[in-house]
Specification:
The protein has six helices and two strands, in the order H-H-H-H-H-E-E-H. By secondary structure, the chain is an all-alpha fold. The chain has one domain. A hairpin with a 5-residue loop joins strand 1 and strand 2. The longest helix has about 35 residues. It is globular, with a radius of gyration of 20 Å. The termini are far apart.
Length: about 180
């Protein structure tokens, strides 16, 4: 393999990683914009709900991998992909009605302080449950296979970028449908 091929492969992997991380940042910023735009609530805590979902998903994947019959099937991972967001939405709904609703009429400074307090609280809960260690979940990449970038990179990142791109299009579709309904 020549130096140019190695350079192109490295740049392709960097491009894929950049798309992955920028799509996550885009998703978080869209969430913040929606919450502030529609509810007039400056909520920093929705990022903590994202982190809670990631930790919970990684933990459930680790538990599913320990079951010997689950290593080759996609079913448990699809259940985790659907179940974790539903659970996080349920937790968020409880927070909405108990904590966030009284903040709607307050000044933005109080909203920032309260939601930052929730960030610290959820971070403490995650640290208490999972500790300060990194969690790794390699099972989905084993099932999804590899893509021929260099020596064979995991196709999990490619699937995640595609999923996040489709998820990024959802707000645009939602807003256009809302515009049609209100017009």
């Amino acid at each position: 393999m020549s130096n140019i091929e190695t350079l192109l492969i490295d740049q392709g992997i960097r491009l894929l990683n950049s798309l992955y991380y920028s799509s996550i940042i885009f998703l978080v910023s869209v969430g913040l914009s929606f919450v502030y735009g529609y509810l007039n609530l400056l909520n920093l805590a929705h990022v903590s709900f994202l982190g809670l979902g990631i930790f919970l998903g990684a933990e459930l994947i680790q538990q599913a991998v320990q079951l010997p019959s689950m290593l080759s099937t996609v079913g448990p991972f699809i259940a985790i992909l659907i179940g974790v967001p539903v659970l996080i939405v349920g937790i968020g709904t409880v927070f909405e009605f108990t904590i966030f609703k009284p903040l709607y009429d307050m000044e933005e400074t109080f909203q920032l302080l309260a939601t930052f307090g929730i960030v610290l609280m959820l971070e403490g809960v995650m640290n208490l449950i999972w500790g300060g260690e990194l969690l790794s979940a390699t099972a989905p990449s084993n099932i999804l296979g590899t893509v021929g970038i260099g020596t064979g990179s995991s196709s999990q990142r490619l699937h995640q970028v595609t999923f996040l791109a489709l998820l990024g299009l959802a707000p645009q579709h939602f807003l256009s449908m809302l515009y049609l309904l209100l017009a």
